[in-house]
Amino acid sequence: MEESGFASQDKAIARLTEINNAKKAAPRGQAKADRIARYGSMRFAEYATRWKAGQRDLGPASVAHLESLLNIHLLPLLGSRRMNTFDHKVVEGFLQILERNDVGLAAQANAFDTLKAILLDANRLGLFDDNPVAGVKPPQYDPQRVVIPSPGSCGSYAPPATTASGWSAI
Predict the structure, then answer these.
(1) Phi, psi torsion values for 115, nearest 5 degrees
(2) pLDDT of 21-51, one tens digit each?
C-alpha cells in the first residue's frame, strides 16, 4: 500500500510513527521473544540433542562421529552452559581448553565445526545479537600429503612368516 499527499509534515510523521509502532507490535517480534525465552535459557546439552535430531541427512557413520564429538569434546565442556550466554569469548575459551588438553588439530577442527553448526542454528533462531563464532579463528588442520608407494618400490617387502596355526611369527 502506497500513501502520499499528507496535508502537513506533522501528519506524515504521525502516520510513519503509527506504521513503525504497528511493525514493532507485530506477532513476528513476539514470536522471536518467545523463541529467545524458550531456547535462551536451555542448556547447551539439551539444545545440541534437539539439533542433532534435526540432522536427518546424516548416514550412520556420520551420526556416530557426531555423537563422539559431542560426548567427548563439546558436552563435557559446554553442556551445562545456557544458550543465551554464548559469545566469541566462550568459543575462544573452548578452543583454548582443547589446545591445553593436547587435543589433536583434526579433532579440534571437527569439534569447532560442530559447535559452529549448532550455534549457527541458534543464531538463525535469533538467540544472539551477534554471531558467537564471528571473528573466531578456527583451528587450522592441514594434513600432510600421503604418498602411496608403487608396487615396484615395494619389491623388497616380504610378508611376515606365519606359524602352522596361521598367526604371525613376529
Answers:
(1) -60, -40
(2) 777 766 567 778 888 889 989 999 999 999 9
